[in-house]
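Why does residue order matter? Because the sequence determines the fold. Keep that principle in mind as you read this record.
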Amino acid sequence: MTRATSAVSWRPISTPIARSGRAGTFATWRIPRRTGGQETIARKIDLDYQTGREHKHWWSFEGRFYFEHDPTERFYGLGNHSHKGNQTNYTTKQIYGEAILGWNINEKIQISLMERPRYVRIGAGGFKSVPDISALFPHQKGISGGSELLSQLMIQYDSRDSVDIPRSGTLARLYYGIADRHFGSSVSYNRFGGELREYYTVGKRITFAGHVFNEYEPAGNEMPFWSQARLGGQESLLTDQETLRGYGAGRYIDNNLFVMNVEMRTRVWEKKIFGTHGILELAPFAEAGRVAHRMGYNPFVDLHPVGGIGFRGIAEPFVVGFVDIGWGGQGAAVFSGKQGGRGGPLHPVARKRLRCRRGIAYSVID
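Structure:
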């Protein structure tokens, strides 16, 4: 293990209402209820270790531990046309471990196997001003939680010039995942899909970043809603969440998902500060996506379009601060925060857009 190919990532929560515990490893925030003067406390622990990130040797490994007690979750029902008026609130209580072992055929091609045992419970939400999920969706699959052991095989091609802040190259992935009752899961399903990320630099200041993602889950009505494809918010997490920055996290949920995004990242200011390369970047973006219940849908019909602009402060190789403002069919959404360290392709580091439309984001196309 060398410095060039290893990293430990501590993923802190950073929101206007957050109270941090030990730096980067634990976070809490309190949400006051409107009745009785009580408070609902949210907690999150996210520890991630990676080695062999640049594929210099024949193997790579990532291990992750995640614990969450989040009373700010929103659910609008399933489908691409779920109604905003059906907004409900619930609490997610979950814990999982994740291990990914990669075989690096060369520096660009990798085959990896992921194992992720996950335990989930769904409870009453933290906001009394929003109906509880059990009031509007009492028969929703997965409303009591459950467990799953997800196994996933993936092959990827990666020619990017940087794992952390790429400016040129391609990242392409194909994957297949399965969970089965015979191996401890409370439900059986399979999923498959792929994504493509492309980076192209014009001159020294402008980088175009493009992203396309498509996932299929031929599970009918068997999947719990917390395992289905989720679209909305700022995060781009393969198989779990895809970005649509004009909406809150998980605004649209169903079996199948398609999304495409493009950014024009423009460096408007650069300077050496105490030996560190400081950069201020503007990134106008456009994106569109949808979900669907049946596999035979047309991914280019009934899309939800979003446009916006991002502001990024970079001290290479870290993003130290960012604000993304997106406009979609339900108005504006603002995501802001910071990236505390290396440790992965700079995906967003916190999760939800709250009642006040605040949240955390970096970029969808990292």
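The mean pLDDT is 83.
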